[in-house]
């Protein structure tokens, strides 16, 4: 495993209750890094996209999420992202720290509306060099 120095806490958008998306989404600055499993990667997020499921999750997910979010265990927001790998698990092949990637965080994996996100390595792919992290970024 190649690892970065632990950066301590970081910022992430979360919700602690189900309800109105304009009320419940909060920016937390005290989110802790999770440990890195052998099959996962940690990404420094450069861009995240708003998916309709992101806001519907806050408003309607009590219908299918068994453990509700709370102040002590908030649910992190966001699925789609692009960024740079900062940690790579020991069993991950074909990806290295510093690689630019894009990918998706599955429900409950950790949320891409954050400075950092950890996901299964099979859910990311190298970002083509001719594409920017965001559509408005000049090349």
From TrEMBL:
Gene3D superfamilies: Medium-chain alcohol dehydrogenases, catalytic domain (3.90.180.10)
Keywords, ordered alphabetically: Oxidoreductase
Molecular functions (GO terms): oxidoreductase activity, acting on the CH-CH group of donors, NAD or NADP as acceptor
Domain of life of the source: Eukaryota
Classification via InterPro entries: ADH-like_N (IPR013154), AOR-like (IPR044626), GroES-like_sf (IPR011032)
Occurrences of domain Alcohol dehydrogenase-like N-terminal (ranges): 39-128
Coiled coil: none
Pfam families: ADH_N (PF08240)
Protein's name according to its UniProt entry: Alcohol dehydrogenase-like N-terminal domain-containing protein
Organism: Globisporangium ultimum (strain ATCC 200006 / CBS 805.95 / DAOM BR144)
């Amino acid at each position: 495993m190649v690892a970065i120095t632990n950066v301590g806490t970081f910022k992430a958008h979360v919700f602690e209750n189900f309800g109105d998306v304009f009320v419940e989404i909060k920016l937390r600055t005290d989110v802790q890094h999770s440990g890195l499993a052998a099959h996962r990667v940690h990404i420094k997020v450069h861009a995240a996209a708003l998916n309709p499921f992101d806001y519907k999750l806050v408003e309607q997910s009590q219908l299918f999420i068994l453990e509700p979010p709370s102040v002590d265990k908030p649910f992190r927001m966001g699925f789609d992202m692009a960024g740079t790998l900062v940690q790579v698990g020991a069993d991950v092949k074909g990806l290295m720290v510093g690689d630019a990637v894009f990918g998706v965080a599955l429900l409950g994996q950790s949320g891409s509306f954050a400075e950092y996100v950890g996901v299964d390595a099979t859910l990311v792919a190298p970002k083509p060099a001719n594409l920017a992290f965001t559509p408005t970024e000049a090349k």
